[in-house]
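Milestone M4 deliverable, item 7.
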Amino acid sequence: MKRTSTLVLLLLALVGGGAGYLVNHLLTVTGRATFAPSGYLPVLLVIIAVAVLLLAWPVRRSIQGKSAGRIDPFRAMRAVTLARASSLLGALTAGFGAGLLVFLLSRPVHPPVGSMVAMVALVASSLVLVIAALVAEQFCTLPKDPDDRQLDDPAPGADAGR
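Output delivered:
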């Protein structure tokens, strides 16, 4: 499994930012109040970040040989899949919160402080989720095995015959 690409995370953040800006713009054009995320959403994202790290920790201990037994490969795959999904979710919600925030800051009327705090908390907790998910993904990475060579890589000691 390949590691999560930084480019994919940035693209998701841009898509989320555009969606957040567009949501608030459409709400304003139709005469409705702008969208402000719930105060519980940042708390939920931090709880997910902690859960991702806690699920990946036994895999890391097993890889390092500090665990008494072997870890189930399916458990390790579930942990790394959850980590990847969490990093994608975190990038998307960080962008969405940033888009909401940019829309509010671009208006001539000063936004309420509560809305600003909620959006800044959403962006910050989303970044915490992305970082925790990338760390958890690193926890589930196996060390490079010397026997795993690419087809184009020379065999060890192949230069000695020349």
